[in-house]
Design brief:
heterodimer; A: about 200 residues; alpha/beta; six-stranded parallel β-sheet; two-stranded antiparallel sheet; 8 helices; 8 strands; about 40% helix; B: about 170 residues; 7 helices; 6 strands; about 15% strand
C-alpha cells in the first residue's frame, strides 16, 4: 500500500512540464509536493468533475501532457466520464485515481462497494489505451516514467492508505486562491508558453 | 430565411460567426437534424458526453486551452448539471454559452411539462441571463449571448424553443 504523498512525489518527479489537475484530498497533498504550481489546477467545486476538466484541456491542447489526480469517491460520482474520455481517446491524458476506499475528508466513511470493484478494469473495458494498478511504491517509482510516456488515455489506480481528516471544518487549512484565479493563472500560463509537442 | 422555422444551417452559421470550435453535447429528441448537419459540416468538433453534468467542466477545460466551446443540452440536462454550473460555470468566471433545448415549452397553449416550468426560475435563481430562439429570425440572439458572456465572464443561456427543422 502506498501513501498518497509518496505516490504524488513520484508523479511530480515525472511530470515533465505536464499540467496537473487535482481534486479533494489530492488538492491538499499536491500543494505540498508540486514544484510547478503555475501548471496546477486544484478543482474544488463540482465534485467528480476534475477528470472532465482535464479531458477538455487535453482536447484543446493535444501537444501538452495532462495529468489528473482523481479520488475514488470523486470518480464514482462521474463514472460515465471513463467512456466519454475513451470515446475521444486523447493521447495526452493520464488519469490517476487515489484509491483509499473512503471519503477521507468527511471522516473516513467507506465509499460504496469499497474493495469490491476494480477501477483499472473499468477503465480498460471503457476503452482506455492502457490501465494499471500500483500498490507498491518501489514498483510505481520504477514504472512511472514509462507509463507517463505511453500513448493515452492511460489510467493509473494508486492504492493508498486511508489518511482520514477528522479535524473540524473550522480547523482545516482553506484554499488560499479562488478557483477563478487559479483557472485564470493556468490559462494565462498555457497561452503564454505553447506546448513543445514532446509527447509519445 | 423562412418564417417560423429554425434551421440547423442558420444556427451553425451563427456559431461560426462566433468562432466556435467545439460542441459539447448530449442529444435530445429535438436535436437530431442539428446533429446531422453538424456531422455533415465537420467544421466544429463534437464532444459527446454520457451525462450532461460532464459538459460544463469539459467546456471549461477547452476554454482554458484557448478553444471556444458551446454546451448543447436539454433543459433536463440543465437540471442534472446543477453542481457543475455552480462550481465551474459560475465560480470559475468564464464566458460560457449554453444552448438549452427548452423541452415542453410552447408559446401557444398551456405549458404542462415541469421541465419547461422550472427552466426559467432556475436560471433566474442562478442569475444566468438567457435569450429565447424559436426561428431563424431569432438567431442573432446567439451572438448577443456570446457578446454578453465575453463581456461579463459569466454563463449565458440560449433557450431553444423549437425543434430544429429537417433542412
Amino acid at each position: 500500500m502506498l501513501t498518497a504523498i509518496d505516490a504524488l512525489r513520484v508523479v511530480e518527479r515525472e511530470r515533465d512540464g505536464a499540467v496537473v489537475f487535482t481534486t479533494m484530498m489530492g488538492n491538499r497533498i499536491w500543494r505540498q509536493v508540486s514544484r510547478n504550481p503555475e501548471l496546477d489546477l486544484p478543482v474544488g467545486g463540482a465534485m467528480g468533475k476534475a477528470s472532465s476538466m482535464a479531458f477538455g484541456l487535453a482536447l484543446a491542447q493535444p501537444a501538452r501532457r495532462i495529468i489528473v489526480v482523481d479520488g475514488d469517491g470523486s470518480l464514482l460520482m462521474n463514472l460515465g466520464s471513463l467512456v466519454t474520455i475513451a470515446n475521444k481517446a486523447p493521447a495526452n491524458l493520464y488519469h490517476m485515481v487515489l484509491e483509499n476506499g473512503v471519503y477521507a475528508i468527511t471522516g473516513g466513511q467507506p465509499v460504496p462497494g469499497a474493495g469490491r470493484f476494480h477501477f483499472a478494469g473499468m477503465a480498460r473495458e471503457a476503452g482506455y489505451r492502457a490501465s494499471y494498478t500500483f500498490d507498491d511504491l518501489e514498483e510505481f517509482a520504477k514504472q512511472a516514467a514509462g507509463v507517463l510516456n505511453e500513448t493515452g488515455p492511460v489510467f493509473v489506480c494508486l492504492k493508498i492508505k486511508p489518511e482520514v481528516d477528522n479535524t473540524t471544518i473550522h480547523q482545516r487549512a482553506r484554499p488560499t486562491r479562488r478557483t477563478a484565479d487559479a483557472v485564470k493563472d493556468l490559462r494565462d500560463a498555457l497561452l503564454r508558453s505553447p506546448a513543445d509537442g514532446n509527447l509519445p | 430565411m423562412r418564417n417560423g422555422v429554425l434551421r440547423p444551417a442558420t444556427i451553425l452559421q451563427e456559431l461560426k460567426k462566433n468562432d466556435v470550435t467545439h460542441l459539447v453535447w448530449l442529444p435530445d429528441s429535438e436535436t437530431n437534424f442539428m446533429y446531422q448537419r453538424l456531422v455533415q459540416d465537420g467544421s466544429m468538433e463534437l464532444v459527446p458526453v454520457c451525462r450532461e453534468g460532464e459538459s460544463i467542466p469539459i467546456a471549461a477545460g477547452l476554454w482554458i486551452g484557448g478553444k471556444v466551446p458551446v454546451v448543447l443540452i436539454q433543459s433536463t440536462g440543465l437540471f442534472e448539471s446543477g453542481d457543475s454550473i455552480r462550481g465551474i460555470g459560475l465560480d470559475v468566471e468564464w464566458p460560457l454559452v449554453m444552448m438549452i433545448g427548452y423541452r415542453g415549452w410552447t408559446r401557444h397553449g398551456i405549458t404542462v411539462d415541469s421541465a419547461a416550468r422550472f427552466t426559467e426560475p432556475i436560471l433566474h435563481t442562478w442569475g444566468i441571463d438567457y435569450y429565447l430562439v424559436e426561428s431563424d429570425e431569432d438567431v442573432e440572439r446567439i451572438s448577443f449571448a456570446f457578446a454578453q458572456a465575453r463581456r461579463t465572464h459569466r454563463p449565458v443561456a440560449v433557450l431553444v424553443g423549437s425543434e430544429y427543422a429537417e433542412t
